[in-house]
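lol ok so funny story. i was supposed to be doing the assay writeup but got distracted and ended up predicting the structure for this chain instead. priorities right. anyway since i did it might as well share w the group, maybe its usefull for someone
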Amino acid sequence: MWSLCLWAQDVPRIRNFAPLDYAAQNQNWALAQSPEGWIYAGNNGGLLEMDGTRWHTFSLPDKQTVRAVAIGHNGEIFCGGFAEFGFWKTDRNGRFYYTSLSDQIRSDQLNKEEIWHILAGPDFVLFQSFSAIYKFDYQKITLLHPPGAIMFTRTVNGQTIVPVIGRGLYELLPDNTFKFVPGSAILADKIVQFMVSNNHGGVWIGTSNHGIFELRDHQFVPWNNPLNLEFQQVQLNKAIALQSGGWAIGTILNGAYILDENGRLRYHFNRENGLQNNTILAIIEDTDGNLWLGLDKGIDFIALQSSLTIFIDQTGKIGTAYTAAYWQNRLYIGTNQGVFVRENCTQPGACRNKFHLVEGTQGQVWQLQVIDNQLLCGHNVGMFRIENDRAQKISDVTGGWCAIPLPGHPDRLVQSTYTGLVLFRKDASGHWVFERRLSGFDAPLKKIAFDTLGNLWGAHPNRGLFRLHLSEDLTQVNAMRTYTREDGLTNDFKLDLAAFPQRLVVNAEPVPLQIVPTDQGVDFRPLIGQDIPQKWLSGMADDYFVVERNDVRLVSHGNTYPLLLTLVPGFENILPVAPDRYLCCLENGFAVLDRRHLLAQTSPRKTNRCLIRRIESADSSVFLPTENLEFSWRHNSLKFYFTVPYFERMPQVSWQLEGFSPQWSPWQSSPEKEFSNLSPGNYTLRVRTDTGAAAAVFHFRILPPWYRSVWAILVYIGLFFTLLWQIERFNRRRFMHQRQRLEIEKERELSVQRTAAEREKLLLEVENKSRELSNAALNLIRKNEVLQRLKDDLLAAKSDPAALPKIIRLIDGHLEGDHDWAIFEESFNRVHDDFFKRLLGQFPDLTPGDFRLAAYLKMNL
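and the output, tada:
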């Protein structure tokens, strides 16, 4: 019976991690989550780590299978396998290293068995096989011998309980002794797989083949719940109490069951609705309240806290969903194969009943809507009215694409078809019936909507946008206008219309446009400022949806909520099907969005924060991001690894490095970024994701090379001043030497000049003396000649008295002659640098007497 119901069950999103994804083996025996949000799994191939963006595998010393994993209160990752147990930690360089604890135990028994379970508490950690318990108090290890072969030890309601096979339950006391739990002998012949609190001070004990027993009033009794009969057949294996107050129970044969706080079945997950495998080997709830399942083949993540529940048509019998309606506690889905209904649904997305086909609706369904408490179906073959799960055709006009109420006419509907427009009216009984075709327009219209002025707008399925005006008697289209690129549309192919309160939007690639009537006609105004291809779909009140690539976002009251959905390409449709409920049409099913639950999630997820996990340099050095980290010049090529503990899908990341690139990078799926040859300076790296997580901010500095460091600059300055001092000292010494040399040369030159001057003076004096001597000699000769002539003339005068006057004239001639003056003038000019020539040049009117007077004055005579 349960399998029949589950075929139609809506469940939260499931993400499958196959062995190929985590690059290890099939079986996953244990799961745990670290304080950072990382998920750890004990796998046949070693210890697996998932940080939200990538998987890592770590091996035990002898590459044993990791059977058990637990988190210590200091963040240790405890694990155990065959003849080995210990813990992993991260060193300050970000490297994961292993410390063995089993080396402290000398036990032949340990060398023959495996550690199957680890129970970590604040004061101690229990490593247990099926025959022994090793208690580690974070300092030393104590070997405990239980009363017999044991199953998995649990801490319930403050007590550490040990199931002993063949005896019942025992409590582990602080003094390391075991105390029998009274009344538990009823469990002696049963295999106890788990123990959890029942939220009423009691305990649920899950057994492998006998269902659940409840400890109540110190008595162990079978759990009084119809599900217990089913649990006896599916082999219970694991169970945990959920933060919400419910429970998650894993089985060996039929997947996982989720119970609410009252013990009622909420979800059942198995292969038919998304699990990779029905055998649950491990189960944990992460800090965000989502579920992780370790399977016999793979690991599955269940978004238990998601506002979406998803129906996946695993059989292909329903097909692709195009439309939906919720009416009279029935959920109707219109697909490419007909109308399918699921009955007795208290609300959409919360029903486990099976879908069945509404007879007569086989084929493509375009529209389902409730108008005046009647369910109408726009179909490939016409229009149907569905009542009591029976379809009655009310129109034979093929291609009932879109029907909408006619403004001002509450008893009329207008429908777009493959061949124009048709009109429906209410008959006397209040049923919608076909009235007529509207003449004047016969083109197909995929979507129609009225604007605030009463004009009917229609989008052609291939190309073109039409504005139509209906006649007052509603018999024809009496006015029509076609709009294309020439009229302002960004694109006129494959258009779509979306009607919002007080505005009409046409979805034209790449961006939606608002249709705004103006005095000149119509204006098409873009609704976003950037050319990011997207569509807008209308919702309740002021809600609307943005469809962008493979992503859908709800925008409500200015806030944006990602939905992580992919709608039917070209036929994107999200419908309000109930108060605070939307149904999203998918290619292989549908999803129901609980709007109230989504909007109530005001607090951010505990682990949904973007992180820079580690940094690698070109020489393979590893760094942990710390505040204001400094890198040497040889580490100026860095590779940053980003992560965010977000597991519903692979997040997209974008980065910005201040000091390198002021712009945010495009979204990328690779969670890493390498920067090469960064210049010295301060940088701030910001990393964001498309999950709504807060951006990671990391400040770091690239130090200059040693020859550009502060100390090097100081040395350079010291050397520079030393060099200047040496140059100055050298110049001073050279100047002194040059000065001394110049003084010596000057003295020598002055000595030579003095010698030359003296020589010249002496030569001049000798020359003057010689000239004076010559002149004196000439004068003497001339005087002698004159005297001789006078002597001769006087001798002659003795005999001739008349010769005396002649002698007197001769004497006067020599006394008045200028010959002596000429000789004086020539000598005077030579001594006094042509004194007379210069004087004559300045005073040409001077007389010879003036010259003589000047010469005497010059000579101080």
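The CA atoms of residues 545 and 554 lie 5 Å apart. The chain has nine helices and 64 strands.
back to the writeup now i swear
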